[in-house]
């Protein structure tokens, strides 16, 4: 599986936007980009996924570079409840198999 | 609706004891996964079921680890003769399968081996 690279940690102020970067320079044409997050003492939860076009849902937006070698998860207005570890994961199209987690980015939201 | 549930939430075992961890997936979910998460690290894959069939057990760290899903719903992860290095959070996830990508995770079972 192609690997992803994320910063170990980031900080944001409450009610400000947060941009979480992910590099995936060896991504293949059939790899989807998935984001999960893990709040303290909970299991991971799905956030968003995309292939080529930017995606929006109620939780976040996903901006994908034109060459697909990087992506950015955007939280439009961070709240204290968004403090979590965010994982960027590549998943081959059609695969119902396991997720391969890296170490993720620990997001701290400051009041 | 009900999510993925796991029991017990916490388990303390003495080294050498056997433990059994239970996972109740979301009703109707075909795929079920077990992951192990050490402190400060991301979850690591252990094993994968599609209905009752165990399609991949490549992540199980040793033959002391055994998982089953006999009727295609509830799953049990068993660890025999526990060792200190087995201390971790064990996460269960389920998904509809097929082209449905989203996995739904339970809260995990924190196992501490003393």
* Cα separation of the termini of chain B: 37 Å
Order of helices and strands of chain B: EEEEEEEEEEE
Q: Rg of chain A from C-alpha positions?
A: 13 Å
Radius of gyration of chain B: 13 Å
Structural class of chain A: mainly beta
The number of distinct helices of chain B, counting runs of at least 4 residues, comes to 0
Helices and strands of chain A, in N-to-C order? EEEEEEEEE
Mean pLDDT of chain B: 95
Question: What can you tell me about this protein's structure?
Answer:
The complex is a heterodimer of chains A (111) and B (114). In chain A, 33% of the residues are buried. Chain A is mainly β and 111 residues long. Chain A is built from no helices and nine strands. Chain B has no helices and eleven strands. Chain B is globular. Classes of the chains: A mainly beta (111), B mainly beta (114). Chains A and B meet through strand 4 and strand 8 of A and strand 4, strand 5, strand 9 and strand 10 of B.
Helix-strand layout with pairing:
The complex is a heterodimer of chains A (111) and B (114).
Chain A lengths: L8 E5 L4 E6 L7 E8 L6 E6 L4 E2 L4 E4 L5 E6 L8 E9 L12 E6 L1
Chain B lengths: L4 E3 L2 E4 L5 E6 L6 E7 L6 E7 L2 E4 L8 E4 L6 E5 L8 E8 L8 E2 L3 E5 L1
Parallel strand pairs in B: 2-11
Antiparallel strand pairs in B: 1-3, 3-8, 4-5, 4-9, 5-6, 7-8, 9-10, 9-11
Characteristic key phrases:
heterodimer; A: 47% strand; B: 114 residues; mainly beta; seven-stranded mixed β-sheet; globular
What would a concise description of this structure say?
Chain A has 111 residues and is mainly β. Chain A has strands at 9-13, 18-23, 31-38, 45-50, 55-56, 61-64, 70-75, 84-92, 105-110. In chain A, 0% of the residues lie in helices and 47% in strands.
């Amino acid at each position: 599986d192609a690997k992803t690279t994320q910063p170990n940690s980031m900080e944001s102020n409450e009610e400000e936007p947060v941009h979480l970067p992910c590099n995936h320079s060896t991504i293949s044409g059939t790899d989807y980009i998935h984001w999960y997050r893990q709040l303290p003492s909970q299991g991971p939860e799905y956030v968003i996924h995309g292939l080529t076009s930017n995606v929006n849902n109620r939780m976040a937006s996903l901006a994908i570079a034109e060459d697909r070698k990087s992506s950015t998860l955007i939280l439009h207005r961070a709240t204290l409840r968004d403090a979590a570890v965010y994982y960027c994961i590549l998943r081959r199209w059609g695969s119902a198999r396991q997720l391969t987690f890296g170490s993720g980015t620990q997001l701290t939201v400051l009041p | 609706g009900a999510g993925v549930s796991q029991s017990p939430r916490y388990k303390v075992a003495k080294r050498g004891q056997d433990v059994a961890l239970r996972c109740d997936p979301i009703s109707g979910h075909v795929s079920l996964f077990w992951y192990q998460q050490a402190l400060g690290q991301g979850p690591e894959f252990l094993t994968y079921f599609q209905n009752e069939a165990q399609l991949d057990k490549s992540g199980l760290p040793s033959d002391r680890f055994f998982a089953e899903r006999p009727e295609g719903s509830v799953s049990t992860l068993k660890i025999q003769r526990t060792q200190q290095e087995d201390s971790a959070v064990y996460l269960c996830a389920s998904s509809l399968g097929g082209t449905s990508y989203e996995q739904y995770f339970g809260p995990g079972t924190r196992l501490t081996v003393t």
